[in-house]
Design brief:
alpha+beta; 5-stranded antiparallel beta sheet; 5 strands
Length: about 110
């Protein structure tokens, strides 16, 4: 199934490159190593017209943030970028106020 789920690097190559680079610079080697295989599994449907956020794993259960953390990378991008990490795995990429990312993500064709 994952073969049909698009890679972040294919949809947003510049974002993927910068994420990996920034995570390595900040000593987040385990997260940086995930970027090459990170996939867009679902798009946020919050309705905010400035949102380009997306899931990178199965949609979360109610207890998403138990044992989780956020990695804020906002200072390094044109918009607001924060990674949600649960159990050492990037599960969600929150992107706000970055229209190019929003547009690319909203046009992704995902398997149903």
């Amino acid at each position: 199934m994952t073969d049909h789920v698009p890679l972040v690097a294919d949809i947003l190559p510049e974002l993927a490159r910068r994420l990996e680079e920034l995570l390595r610079e900040r000593g987040e080697e385990l997260l940086a190593a995930q970027i090459a295989d990170l996939r867009v599994t679902a798009v946020c449907r919050c309705g905010n017209d400035r949102c380009g956020s997306f899931y990178t794993t199965e949609r979360p259960m109610k207890r998403w943030f138990r044992g989780g953390r956020q990695v804020d990378l906002t200072d390094a991008f044109p918009g607001w970028v924060t990674l949600d990490v649960v159990g050492g795995e990037i599960v969600y990429v929150e992107v706000l106020f970055w229209d190019e990312v929003r547009d690319a993500v909203m046009n992704v064709s995902l398997p149903t």
